[in-house]
Amino acid sequence: MRVRLAPSPTGKLHIGTARTALFNWLFAFHEKGQFLLRIEDTDKERSKTEFTTNILEGLEWLGINWTESPVLQSSQIQKHKDAIQLLLDRGLAYRCYATEEELEEMRSQQKAKGEAPRYDNRYRDLSAEEQSKFHQEGKTAVVRFRIDDLSVISWNDLIRGQINWHGEDLGGDMVIARRAPADEIGDPLYNLAVVVDDSSMEISHVIRGEDHIANTAKQILLYKALGLSIPIFAHTPLILNQEGKKLSKRDGVTSISEFKSMGYTSEALANYMTLLGWSVPEGMEERFTIQEVGSVFGFDRVNKAGAKFDWDKLNWLNSQVIHNLPPQSLLERLLPLWEKKGWKISSNEWGLDLVSLIGPSLTLLNDGIDQAFPFFETPPLLEDGKNQLQSENSSKALESLSKQLEVNPWDGYNTEFAKDILKTAAESIDIKKGVLMKSLRASLLGTLNGPDLITSWGLLARIGKDRERLLSNI
Ligand code: GLU
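Above: inputs. Below: predicted complex with glutamic acid.
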């Protein structure tokens, strides 16, 4: 059992491609098969090595590992050309000399008659004399593969069941090599290249998006014409936006690296992508690792209908993953974000305590920047904090606390000590402890909302930042 992902490096790793990769990987995992990669880099203008790097890094990040080195499609061109030559030799393909203008005119005539555009196979049966005449005139030609309008192409799709496609719906004889001088073979095109490559990579199952169904019909004809064995096909549902249309760049974030830089975890994203099209068996939770889902994965639970992208669900999964990370591992994920801000933790232990404090309120890893801000830099004073600090008794309360701290400095480790000192400071000037705590919170964190006060105070006390903030707000 060998499956593959065949991305074109013409953009960053798209969530649709990543989901296709994941379904291939899960199927291979379940069947103890192999998952391979082929980089379809034959579009010389649009293919870029930086995109190949982005795709490979994205897959690795998601935990989608592959076997064997990725095959570069551009390195297989001779094989593609040999296959085209074979089809020409067998009379199953021919040179078509139609010029662009000629094709354009044909299409506009079809349009005027209300017909769907298709190539009318006009160069299919040229005599040897006609061919040599075009040749001598120095005309260029594409190579077309004959498609019999009357053929019916059928396959048993692992997701969609029996599919029947009619030859007449494939748009006429198909171009398999780009325009070139008539004694050469031009650059091979997608459908031909895919068939040759999947065959030489011994791919047993082709799993890809449903937008490739018509290509599959064409490819099956090519497998037959080349005498190659036909793989099994599975066409996965598309990922849709809120309007029910295919998710595209216009919908905002679509590439895996963008999700990563927003602060989504690879675990939540892989989990969520699986749920975009696959439904969990009864009794299984919707939160899982890819290894867990791999052990029960099958196409019987993949839906035929497109799957709507749901940000709320992804966010929920992400928060669940973050809340369940061991503190050390959450710290390791937050450190690079903090480092970018120039923030350093005073010790690993202090970092772990900070992470345990803010972790439960994070939905995205990047929320860990805002939430950690007051522990690295002086926080801005927000409206509610300002009102509190200006309220009656606020300065008095902070002053009293500051006096107590002068006598008994707190190193920040003992919560009981903090509670006692707050009590004494409040009682000594006869105000409510609640008022003092609110003012303390406003002076330390700039707002009345936020994480546990005593723990926050303790963290600041340990790096010697509590007194200065207290004093500056008296
Ligand atoms: N390069 C094609 C794509 O990215 C591959 C499709 C296929 O899996 O055959 O859509």
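The mean pLDDT is 96.
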